[in-house]
Amino acid sequence: MPKSQYISPADAFEKGYLEFDKIPLCRYDKTLDEEKKLYSKEDFLRIYRDMRIIREFETMLNEIKTKSVYNGVAYNNPGPAHLSIGQEASAVGQAYCLDINDFTFGSHRSHGEILAKGLSSINKLDEKELYDIMKEFLGGNILSVVEGSEEKKGDVKDLAVDFLLYGALAEIFARTTGFNRGLGGSMHAFFIPFGIFPNNAIVGGAAPVALGAALYKRSCHKKGIVVANSGDGALGRGPVLEALNMANMDQIRKLWGMDGKYDDTGMPILFNVFNNFYGMGGQTRGETMGFDVAARLGAGFAPGMMHAEKVNGYDPLAVIDATTRKKELLVNGEGPAFLEVATYRVSGHSPSDSSTYRSAEEIEEWKKACPIAAYRKKMVEGKVATDAEFDEIESGIIKRMTKICKMATDETISPRMDLDREPDIISGIMFSNTNTPKMDTEREPEVLIPKEENPRVKQLASKSRTAFDENGEMLPKIKQFGLRDGIFEAIIDKFYEDPTTIAYGEDNRDWGGAFAVYRGLTEALPYHRFFNAPISEAAIVGSAVGYAMAGGRAIVELMYADFIGCAGDEIFNQLSKWQSMSAGILKMPVVVRVSVGSKYGAQHSQDWTALCAHIPGLKVCFPATPYDAKGLMTEALNGTDPVIFFESQRIYDVGEQFHKGGVPTEPYTVKFGEPDVKREGKDVTILTIGAVLYRALDAAKKLESEYGISAEVIDARSIVPFNYEKVIESVKKTGKIVIVGDACDRNSVMRDMASNITEMAFDYLDAPPAVFGSRNWITPAFEFEKYFFPQADGIIDVISQKLMPINGRTYTVNETELEHIERSKAGV
Amino acid sequence: MANLVIMPRQGQSVESCIITAWHKKKGDKVSEGDIIYSYETDKSAFDEPSAFSGTMLEVFVSEGDVVPCLDPVCIIGNEGEDISSLMPQKGEKSEKSPAAEQPASAENKSAPAAPEKTGEVIPNQRVKISPRARKLALESGVDMTKVVPTGPNGRIIERDINAALDRGERAGVAAVEAFLDGRLQVVPEEKATADTAALKKAEGAPSANDFGEYEEVAMSGVRRAISRSMHASLSEMAQLTLNTSFDATKLMEYRSSLKAGGEALGLPKISLGDMVFFAASRALAANPDVNATLSDDKIRKYKHANIGLAVDTERGLLVPTIFGADTMSLAEISRASKAAAAKAREGALTPDEMSGGTFTVTNLGSLGIESFTPVINPPQVAILGVCGITHRVKEDGTVYPAMGLSLTIDHRALDGAPAAKFLNSLAKSLENFDLLLAK
Question: Could you tell me which CATH class the domain B3-88 is placed in?
Fold first, then answer.
């Protein structure tokens, strides 16, 4: 909502018609003679070879899956195989015109896309570059398998084809010599040095991720375009539509240039839909969608209609023609673009597909239209090459594929990870745990003003770094350097240090974030580093994943933690998994800021730490003091792991009450996983998660003054990872612990911690660890908060009811076992 | 008419704002819409336009001041106007100190109430006790029967053990172990009998209840003392028993001779037991390692033998001490033993007469016991059991009366070899009792 753009009633209510341009449908009509001017014989034959390699690769997998043998090589593959027989021309046509700098993100059915892009890259790289890539990748592991014992002199490109096919197949067969050491598999195979970015087992999952890679190119001024491949079925998915919308944001062309200071080019992304007319069995045209022609979608997102077009995907030359034109538009800053490539898979969705949803006649007709046979016929008739030449290519491919299949199924040269001998090998790649303050050490960060001139920075200089004055009296909140200021300071420091760091989310710019954490960043940063995202949580997080994959660092904000649900796949399946699915090749420096609300009812007040902590591969923290917030944010931003950074709207304004000397102005870090003793005691331990710390401290004060009970209060600070040692130490001392948080009790992090503490300190416990969370209800209105969220008095009640009965205590809550049995019976 | 300008409230969560700049000062002309001051919340910055035209008549706060929302900031009106009614009351401060808002801490702070009893420790019922309290009980040897549960649902928790210990309730680690093991494994009695009865009935077999009659007798004080002491003895010490026997021919001959002529000399009726007691007193004087007590990691070796004499009485076992037995003649020992045993049976022993022992002799020989394992009377480190006479055959085929001796030692204080030496020397001296008397 920039003030420079004025919205007037006159414009809003203007009469007229909205007009659309025509969308070209399969308009390619070049003759072979015309094409001969563009392609050499070698080019024509290479197109054939690439299509035929893909066909043979998929045929081989189909034989292995359905008959457990291919050309005499016997093997049983329990993993998935979503084959693309019939779609070869679409993949090869697209890849033909892409360079190494151009990235492709795969669809759900992407063996062909991967091989096509790989073959295209092999053709474009010179021999030395190519050999170096193979030699450096995973320590030359894959190269040494395909090269044999001796270094192969001679045809490096031929060797590279073996390398590509073997690396992909070994990955599909879960071998440690696969592109991702067998951890990605069929659905997640990729090879970054050839510009092949991950495909995705989640239909449409790659679209927002691909947008993020394009954002990286756009914001970090990198060459090349990004192709987001998806099938037609994926067009029904929200994240794909969100990504389409976000790629078309007006601001990219209208605001990001900042009056000529920076680029005003469009997002360099091509949304490429391989329309094979079916989801799995659901027929998109005629059944599950209403678009009739998928290219229609391009018209819905921006006045330029995304240059939408439909092309015949059974003609590789037509696909090359269309993709080349789209790429040119993107390179010229006219992106994004939308291309529908009509194609068909004659193979089933998977080997178990009995084609109950389509007729045999339909399949037969498409088989007759086979793109490879048709192309060959056209080439022979057009005297480009003879049948004998094509036969020779074909037999060479079959021979090669048999060799590759033999190698990839041979346990001795293609072993699997040995988890008996190295049981921690997967544990070791769940997080990268690096310290990388700058993702790019060559560029200078782009900023608008020196940090010292920033109005927020100047304002903060006048605030007290501790909550108290020199007499130990609490200062008014507005004079305290608050928790939101701690987060801000860590982030602005990073913006002036790491040129790749960007931040976005809803209402971040101008407004400064809904809770004013970002106030001051608008003045500091150009749009392409700091902008308002559309209300598209899936695209916000998904694009951050792609941004990080491509090499940058992103801070994204979901205004309320409740919106995690809107970005479910992106947080739970994309952000969390790519580091480990890539065997540690990819890094994921993304911080997702989420804010736990209060006073806003059932859909705006939830602490969802448990959901995030449940998913392997995410770090989760929930600081409750300015010192911890700044330290943990700095730690998160120096690392390369995905962090879900929980904040609480209850305490954005609290000053530092614990750390001696207050919050330092210079950067420092608080290590993940270390809980912090906020108050020492000897009779009972209160372990807190998040904002409830302050209510626990109130309870501790009351326990001391009214009952002579000395409570130790420990602030968890981090949830994943979490070091129990300090807590166990405290429990050994006190024998009693209550774990408190604002999350609903059932299946919470608190419950998990209670279970772990019971196991780790059983002999020291004087009572089972007690848990005091929120009720398993909706969050009621603010007026009823005390009945829902844990309060100081309730904490004392729980201590009395479950740990050490306090004589004369009048209870405000009933947390006894009997009550819990009844609640559990009722499911509340 | 003069108007009071107040600090607006920008959002529910905003309590106060900070004045960042005054654009009008006292006496300035103000038109409606003029920015009069700028202020900030912790979330954003605002410019406040005037809703009135006139003159700035009064300004209450300065730049940098923190002003609670809805508090007066300034007055705009016509020059010379009476604004006294709009002036803030004296003593009203624009900024409240949050510390002052806190209620004064309770003056009448009384000592916290003692924890309330939440359950009962009932013998033979399952004991609810936390792992931590259990650990402390086992370490401290608290008297579990004196612990008052104050934990949730009648559970014994750490503070309950500590409270009992503070009251001095100790029974030894062995007692705690026995208590916890026994009670934690036993199903409440009522239920067990009921279940068993039901089961038996179903099978048509005689019910356990048919033959389950018993008389329940409360333990006497003596019984309880014996129980505690004996159990502590066995659980706290490392007891080891050595058995031997000796040729009692000469001993018996000597006793026969006493029987025949002793009375004439005015000697008491001397028993075999007296004679062993006498020999032991001499052997002890020569072996201070055995004539010793052990407590708190300190071994006391005594110069004189104060020997406890185990006496079976109706009320239970009592052990009066014969002080300075090593200095007494056989006749004196015999007299003293008889007197002590009589006193014990009458129940006339004082506690002093039953303590201070450095060794104990217990005699089951007269009851025909061939060998047994005496239990040491703590804190002594050894006890001698006198066994009955059996007949054994020598290598040459001759038969001789053999009298058994059982010596239990506390291996913590005394090793097997010196104990064996002591026992052997005792046996030798008894075999040659005449020589011993001659010493």
Answer: mainly beta
